[in-house]
Amino acid sequence: MAGAGISTPSGIPDFRSPGSGLYSNLQQYDIPYPEAIFELMYFFANPKPFFTLAKELYPGNYRPNYAHYFLRLLHDKGLLLRLYTQNIDGLERAAGIPPDRLVEAHGTFATATCTVCRRKFPGEDFRGDVMADKVPHCRACTGVVKPDIVFFGEELPQRFFLHLTDFPMADLLFVIGTSLEVEPFASLAGAVRSSVPRVLINRDLVGPFAWRQRHNDVAQLGDVVGGVETLVELLDWKEEMETLMQKEKEKLDAKDS
Ligand code: APR
Prior knowledge:
This protein is an alpha/beta fold. It contains 9 helices and 8 strands. It binds adenosine-5-diphosphoribose.
């Protein structure tokens, strides 16, 4: 289970860290409270604040970091049953984790839907508009097109319901870089069997790690990259991580050039 805390080392602010989190830096948008930027009512009244934020978050401006590549290495080793992420930055895909191993629970910029005629489009079709500070409009009906980011009150993607079989099957749960503040995602932390160890890698204790610990919970507190590096050392996967990250860096450099 991953949250915005795994992407702050890539340069993307999280939501709730005091001072640096997105929700402490929305003064330039005229919205009544931070979460409104992800609420449909405000989006329909004025989509500009969301698209100004989308311009910052649009995939392609940032690169995966050590934490993402650790999750990719788990997949390469056949150990990753599924990665449930709340993040919309697409860095899990950019790290090479295949979509079938991913549940992007709060949606993605990879696709977009017209808010009037409900036509679906590839997210790439509107990158130009978003980067040019233009609100994207549907070619068919001129309605406003919204990236398939899950707004508060919206249904989560169908793939989220894979949790009904994934979590009972898991034999180890990582919870990385999330405040576990938002439902229904946060409750997944309690969906693994009581015999299954839960490992939190986060700046601070959150959710059940703070108020309903289990005997076999483990918390590695502090910076997420430092925490993952400690685990990689213990697993003796340092070499493999360096090789993987070098290979992926070359791929991304080639793509950029
Ligand atoms: N190292 C360790 N922990 C970190 C780091 C870091 N470099 N950066 C941030 N964190 C921790 C923060 O301390 C916090 O506990 O990661 C957590 C991030 O929490 P949030 O900012 O609330 O992000 P997230 O949990 O992903 O938010 C969930 O809220 O607004 C909605 O839809 C939005 O998906 C988002 C959801």
